[in-house]
Amino acid sequence: MSAKYLISAPSVLRPGTPTSLAVTILTNDPVRVTAELTNGNTSLVQAESTFTGGVTGVLVLPPFPESSVDQRYSFKLHVWGYQRERLVFINTTTLRFNPRTFSTFIQTDKHNYRPGDTVKMRVLSVQPDGKPHKGRVHVSIRDPKGNLIQGWPSLNSYLGVVSKEFHLSQTTPLGIWTIETMVDELTTEEQFIVDYYEPPHFDVQVKTAPEIVMVDDLSGTVTAQHTNGQPVQGTLSVTVTLVSALFNSGRPTIVHNATKDIHGSTQFLISQDDPPVRQHRATDLSNSQHHTNGILYITACVTEMSTGEVPMYDLNLITLLQENFPTMQEIQLCSVFEV
Q1: Are strands 148-155 and 186-194 parallel, antiparallel or unpaired?
Q2: What pLDDT is attached to residue 245?
Q3: Among 7, 151, 172, 186, which is least packed by CB within 10 angstroms?
Q4: Tens of pLDDT along 73-102?
Q5: What CATH number did the domain enclosing 60 receive?
Q6: Cα–Cα distance, 44 to 76 (Å, whole number)
Q7: Residue 59 binned pLDDT confidence (cut-offs 50, 70, 90)
Q8: What's 158's DSSP letter?
Q9: Counting Cβ atoms within 10 Å, is residue 31 exposed (0-12), middle (13-18) or buried (19+)?
């Protein structure tokens, strides 16, 4: 066994979803790669393909039904590499199994509120392939003591999205409030803070394209102005976070962070050749299908130089598409949440 190789695989398996492996052969000669998923002593699925040396390709294992697995036993991925009939490498790794077939995200228009404010929220449910999940949505709001203050049972979602508003009274209890959602018996929580605080003296806005292809550079404009229209001078921090049902088990993952000066307005560019982005693309390739999308959160934080005022934020959402994404209708669920 002598061939050098690099194979990236998702750490979590989901039923009914294909499993993609990113395969790179680090030799000149082609290698035939065979992969198999097992559950205990049972073979779930297999796939095989030949890969050219020095080129990264994708080997897709077909989906398997949840009824075919026994969670009492471990899940393992086995790979073999052959040059002609000679075995040149072999490897085995243990994977985790997640029976969830969709993920739910709760978004609010901001994190901190004052008594008398209105909380705007949105619940987004997506399947592992990036398409909307259209289950019934139950939403409830609890105060810092856990008391149920407002509830909306059995809401119909539109393209996997439910939007609601909740008004905080002037005598609202201060502290950490909780938004709870239940979609097809899957429970998700998100928290926000109610407290007295000084309202912002300047606004921050982020403008980007509504969607990008995975191989594109990401660019945009950040504008920071006082309420009287004067420009804000200070420091800008731009953070790019990926949320994908197939990447990192659906948890938000920071793929880039950059800091620069700002005087009223400035542009930013995140190149696909930057090391953190390039590393993410190589990893995400093994977790995504050619028709899968994700959501990029672009967070802009501006700290004013003269006053040292607490940083102000703006959040923008971008749909991340594969090159041959079939339609544009399915990305409407990723539109910007209006503040």
Answers
A1: unpaired
A2: 46
A3: 151
A4: 999 999 999 998 899 999 999 998 887 778
A5: 2.60.40.10
A6: 10
A7: very high
A8: B
A9: buried
> The tokens of 305 are what?
């130089």
User: For residue 320, is pLDDT > 80?
Assistant: no
Cβ proximity of 224 and 265 under 8 Å:
yes
Can you count the helices (H) and strands (E) in the chain? 1, 24
Domain that holds residue 278: 202-334
- Residue 15: Cβ within 10 Å count: 18
Domain termination site, one of 194, 218, 247: 194
Q: What is the pTM of this model?
A: 0.49
Say how far residue 118 (Cα) sits from the centre of its chain. 27
Q: Which residues of 300-333 are buried (b: 16+ CB within 10 A; e: fewer)?
A: bbbbbeeeebebbbbbbbbbbbbeebeeeebbeb
For 20, residues 6+ apart whose C-beta sits below 8 A from its C-beta are 10, 58, 59, 60, 61, 285, 286, 287, 288, 289
pLDDT of residue 4: 84
Question: What is the residue-wise DSSP string for 115-138?
Answer: TT-EEEEEEEEE-TTSPBP---EE
DSSP notation for 207-256: EE-SEEETTS-EEEEEEEEETTSPBPEEEEEEEEEEE-SSSGGG--EEEE
Domain boundary among 43, 64, 97: 97
Q: 248: phi > 0 → left, psi -120 to 50 → alpha, else beta; which?
A: left
* Structure tokens given for 258: 């950059």
Q: For the sheet with 265-270, list strands across it.
A: 202-208, 218-226, 265-270
The total number of structural domains in the chain stands at 3
DSSP for 170-204 reads TTPPPEEEEEEEEETTEEEEEEEEE---PPPSEEE
Cβ(28)–Cβ(51) under 8 Å? no
The two beta strands, 312-321 and 294-304, are antiparallel
Nearest to 222 by CA among 264, 168, 176, 175: 264
Residue 298's DSSP bridge partners are: 240, 316
